[in-house]
Amino acid sequence: MRFFFLPLVSAEIICNYDEPCLKACTDTVCDYYWNVEHRYSRTWRTKDYGLKGDYPKGAYRDFPVFWNKTTNSLDLIDSGISSGVDHIYNEDGTIKDPLDDLENLFFIDGQEERRAITINGQLPGPTIIVNKGALVRIHVKSALHEESLTLHWHGLHQVDNYWNDGAAMINQCPIDAFNAFTYVMRADNSGTHWYHSHYGIQRADGLHGAFIILEDGDEEENMSWIPMVITDWYSADSLYLAGTDPYRFGNYNGTRFTGPATRICNTEQKGFMTGVKMSSYCVDSIIANGRGQLRLPISEENPEQKEFFFSVGEEYHVSETTTKVQLKSIHAGFEYPIFIRSADGRPLTLTATDGRRISPEQGDGVFMGVGETWNIEFDFPLSEDRLEIIAEIIFEGLGKKATKVERPYVRIVILRDALVAGSEVKSELVPVYPDAQIPDMFDFESENDAFEKQLLNCPMTHIVDIPCKLVTEFQRDPEFESRFDHPPPSLLATPDRVVDLNMNFATGSSFNGIKFKYPDRPFFENPEDMDFTKCTKKQIENEGGYCTHLVEVEKDELVEFRITSAEHIENMSRRWQWTYHAIHVHGYEFFVTDIGFGVANQTTGYIERNSPVFGCRGGHIKCMHTVFNEQLMSLRRSKFGRQDHIAKNTVVVPAMGYVVLRLRATNPGIWPFHCHQMNHNYEGMAFALYVKDSEENKPFSYLPKNMPRCGDYHPKDTAINEESFEKENDAQQSALSIFFVLFTFLSINL
Q1: SS3 of 205, please?
Q2: Closest listed residue to residue 316, CA positions, set 232, 376, 387
Q3: Which residues face 426 on adjacent strands?
Q4: Its domain of life (predicted)?
């Protein structure tokens, strides 16, 4: 008698180190093997070098290439590696043309040798697609030469799994160069999420990717969906940007500046919206799924005349039966908000954000803050063969008067293809030539049909003359109510704790004047038992400073955060520091219950003072703290009180305005709460939400084994967490071994 062995637990390996991860995982256990390395743009990766030279064929080599305008071809730059070899050859001895090998060309936006960080050679990193409930193990091996790294799983709540959240020096020590670490997590909350480096501003080098968790009911007939990671992109890499940042070190109480700030724009070059600065940085390109096209002015005398770089684009092919295309859009960028719209003016529909379904909202474009995710749908009638979508930087123009200029953008092209079946999506790489000039197809200053249009998710009431529908006006999808682990807190319920927080630059990037100082070791035990730079009572209440700012709440408390982005209205020395901020919290989602705006001049449309709902405490000129008018807040609650506010994990705070967020503190741990604009966070605009579990002492009652080491941390050899994922998996494997032995014995004897 013969028995067939059926394993109790299976693990689907999606990719091995250096292999592309191209498929979704349909199993209950999903293993990814990732190699993290540096690559340089405008290069060609090949194994064929040396076929006719002095070096053996077979090793990966990246060769610089450039666009030859005379011959209209890509030429190999003399590498100097092997004299006399100026070509790459095919097996048959013919010269290999880089244009016939687009998948191995690494161009990003076409600029020369921009240092980037890739996973298995990919930028952005591999897309993770798993089913809800899957156990996901990501085995990370670092091939970075002089940098450490961590990966944060943005949008995953990591309940009872605090150690795998990936925030450097909060949850874990960084993974050092040429070391490895395995992240283990359960895909508990469905939707469009993402992952990214949480080490300095390393994310600016492309160390990020999509994390899609599917469940029943997500698919629609005749709809094709595409993960779309979009970012603003800069010619300088993260190490350069960090090294030239004038605000990072020592700048509390305004005492000194350090870096030369070579990527900081003059005021006349900065992007402005409603008279408010969007960022101090000079953006170069927009890239979508790692591809774009750099466009630079040929001369200062004629900035309208552009030089376009050769690049590689990606087109997406859908079936002939597709009638709707959904972009699972992720803003993984650095500083600037991004605006998404169709190229031909057709409307779009929002159906989900930050992993949660919402009642459909239709508009003519959507504003995405840094860190936000939105599922964006476009109708694609069967009579059409091409759909073109634009992702662009959002600002009215440059300088204090917002002089109109062309904004950086990228095209996302979807084509119909008879060879694609059902809801499947295939992509094709195409060369993007230097003469591919594209007109600026959306004119914010046009008054035609302005009042018939509507934009979505803006941190202002209008963009020029076009009205915006606000995030607080969106509603949860009632069909998906049961998917909330905890019901949304009532707007009218009295919170257990109210936390007022103001973001501004009174002492540099800060909350309430405090620049966050990361500890020199992670929080592997109760903060009361650790030695780190604790904030004093004076610093928290009055003085501000540079310390490790913890906001402590008790488990299960209902907490209301009132977050403002305000300067004192009479502090004209910082008038051009007014700006917007994208706020993100780890380990949680929150409910956005109110949003308020600075007051705009009715003639110019420019914001000229902060919201009347709050003011600077004591009229202090630095405005490190704000105080809300409780009577006006009560009136707003009674007027706008609803029970269907949408859940978010990232939201944009209006300039000189505020947002009110509520969450139930059910997930113990120390969770970063920060501005998601990278330099703001890196410079200190952050604090840590300490959700204290006085009964069970989670998560400090155990420590998983094999955590990376740093400082004076010396981990134990074995875990003492009986509920950890590794223990769970070990138990499953033990059961599997016993089962296999038993069946082998029976099969031999029977």
Answers
A1: helix
A2: 387
A3: 317
A4: Eukaryota
pTM: 0.90
Instruction: Give yes or no for a contact between 597 and 656, defined as CB atoms under 8 angstroms apart.
Output: yes
The token pair that represents 408 in the structure block: 């950086």
Rounded to whole angstroms, how far apart are CA atoms 354 and 360? 15
**pLDDT above 80 for 386:** yes
Summarize pLDDT for 191-244 with one digit per residue, the tens: 999 999 999 999 999 999 999 999 877 778 889 999 999 999 998 999 888 888
Q: What is the Cβ-side half-sphere exposure of residue 308, based on CA atoms within 13 angstroms?
A: 17
Instruction: Report residue 506 as tokens.
Output: 């009174």
Distance (Å, rounded) from C-alpha 658 to C-alpha 402?
24
**Listed residue (211, 127, 143, 209) closest to 175, CA to CA:** 143
Helix, strand, coil distribution of the chain in percent, nearest 5: 15, 35, 50
Output the pLDDT for position 94.
78
Name residue 40's amino acid: Y
* CA distance readout (Å), 317 to 287, 307, 346, 419, 426: 19, 29, 20, 9, 5
* Cβ atoms of 447 and 465 closer than 8 Å: yes
Of the candidates 228, 386, 375, the residue with the CA atom closest to the CA atom of residue 322: 386
CB 50 within 8 A of CB 56: yes
**Token pair listed for 280:** 């101090």
Q: Is the dihedral of CA 458, 461, 464, 467 positive or negative?
A: positive
| Residue entry with tokens 């003492």 | 720
How far is it, in rounded angstroms, from Cα 516 to Cα 545? 9
In angstroms, rounded to a whole number, what is the distance separating the alpha carbons of residues 17 and 14?
Answer: 10
Assign residue 18 a region: left if phi > 0, alpha if psi is -120 to 50, beta otherwise?
Answer: left
At 425, the pLDDT band (50, 70, 90 cuts) reads very high
User: Smallest Cα–Cα separation from 120: which of 270, 290, 257?
Assistant: 290
Q: What is the spatial distance between Cα 120 and Cα 118, in angstroms, rounded to a whole number?
A: 6
Mean pLDDT, residues 168-172 taken together: 94
Predicted confidence (pLDDT) per residue in 406-422, tens digit: 788 999 999 999 999 98
Tell me the sheet residues that pair with 552: 690
Instruction: Tell me what pLDDT residue 739 has.
Output: 36
Q: What H or E segment, with its residue span, contains residue 741?
A: helix 725-749
What is the maximal distance between C-alpha atoms in the chain?
92
Tell me the C-alpha distance between 348 and 379, whole Å. Answer: 8
Within 8 A by CB and 6+ apart from 180, the residues are 139, 140, 141, 142
Distance between the two ends of the chain, CA-based, in angstroms? Answer: 6
